[in-house]
Amino acid sequence: MRTFFYACKRLARRWRALRREKRAGTTAARIGAPGVVAAALTPTGFIAIAGELWPAATVGGGHLAAGAPVLVIGVAGTRLRVAPLPSARRGL
User: Fold this and answer.
1) What is the architecture, at CATH level 2, of domain 31-92?
2) CA-to-CA distance for 17 and 34, rounded, in angstroms?
3) Among candidate residues 79, 35, 33, the one with its CA nearest the CA of residue 59
4) End-to-end CA distance of the chain
5) 9, 27, 38, 62 - which has most CB atoms within 10 Å?
């Protein structure tokens, strides 16, 4: 019986550690990262950052076409908040 509770305690500890790692990696590492719109943001959709797809929403509620470069400026719930890169605004 003691072995069962010991195993449960170890599993619970590992599960909490994995949740902390995932939470920290989602927000802290992604703010300021450049990305590319994978599916049109109207105002929500998906962006690609380093080969991974992330759900995202535009800051001003505007629309961005697929392939437009964006910059992650924050996190709102489970979505990344993005803004178009300044070079994309000028049409460069």
Assistant:
1) Beta Barrel (2.40)
2) 28
3) 79
4) 68
5) 38
- The two three-digit tokens of residue 92, written as one number: 């460069």
Model confidence band, residue 6 (pLDDT cutoffs 50, 70, 90): confident
Give tens-digit pLDDT for 77-89: 788 999 998 764 5
pTM: 0.63
Query: Residue 40 and residue 71: Cα distance in Å, rounded?
Result: 15
Alpha carbon separation from 69 to 19, 34, 40, 51, 87 (Å, rounded): 30, 7, 12, 14, 9
Taking only Cα atoms into account, the Rg of the chain, rounded to an integer number of angstroms, comes to 18
Question: Residue 90 to residues 52, 59, 86, 87: CA-CA distances in angstroms?
Answer: 27, 18, 7, 5
Burial class (CB in 10 A: 0-12, 13-18, 19+), 81: middle
